Amino acid sequence: MSKRTAAKPVPVKTGKVQAGASPFRPGQSGNPRGRPKGSRNKLGEDFLSALQADFAEHGPATIAKVREDRPHEYLKVVASILPKELNVKTSPLEGLSDEELEESIQFLRKMTRDGAVEPDPDIKH
User: Fold this and answer.
1) What values do phi and psi take at 95, rounded to 5?
2) Mind listing the pLDDT tens digit for each residue in 62-80?
3) What pTM was computed for the model?
4) Is 50:43 a contact under the CB 8 Å cutoff?
5) Among residues 1, 29, 104, 107, which is most buried (max CB within 10 A)?
6) Spatial separation of the C-alpha atoms in residues 15 and 25, rounded to whole Å
7) C-alpha span between 23 and 29 (Å, rounded)
């Protein structure tokens, strides 16, 4: 038996795109009409529409059932819809008018002068 050696293939130009080369010139598309408008979002829109309709009919009752039967899942959902960074700003001075703020400042200054309150050394007066 004789041993056969495989011959190396000879590259042939077939007109097909070679690796790394584009078959289209700049500004030319392989799909000149493009995809139909809305086709990319159709599935998502249909899903959200069906979900909205289902929620409108069953949402409140389902939420109550999950809250009662599976409170840990309920809390997961609540936590998942909260913003990642929750900035709660509460200030006892927030609801005061400028006049009330000025009166408070004057009162605190008087208490500090009278010795009823020690001034904070970190606050510049």
Assistant:
1) -90, 0
2) 999 999 999 999 999 988 9
3) 0.36
4) no
5) 104
6) 15
7) 9
pLDDT digits (tens, 9 = 90+) for 32-43: 777 777 677 888
Contact in structure between 119 and 112 (CB atoms under 8 Å): yes
Burial of 36 from C-beta contacts in 10 A (0-12 / 13-18 / 19+)? exposed
State the alpha helices, DSSP H only, in the chain.
42-69, 71-81, 98-114
> HSE-up of 88 (CA within 13 Å, CB side)?
2
Length, in residues, of the chain: 125
The per-residue pLDDT for 112 is 80
Please state, in angstroms and rounded to a whole number, the distance separating the CA atoms of residues 114 and 125.
Answer: 16
For 32, 47, 53, 74, 78, the CA distances from 70, given in Å and listed in that order, are: 53, 25, 24, 6, 13
At 46, list the tokens.
């249909």
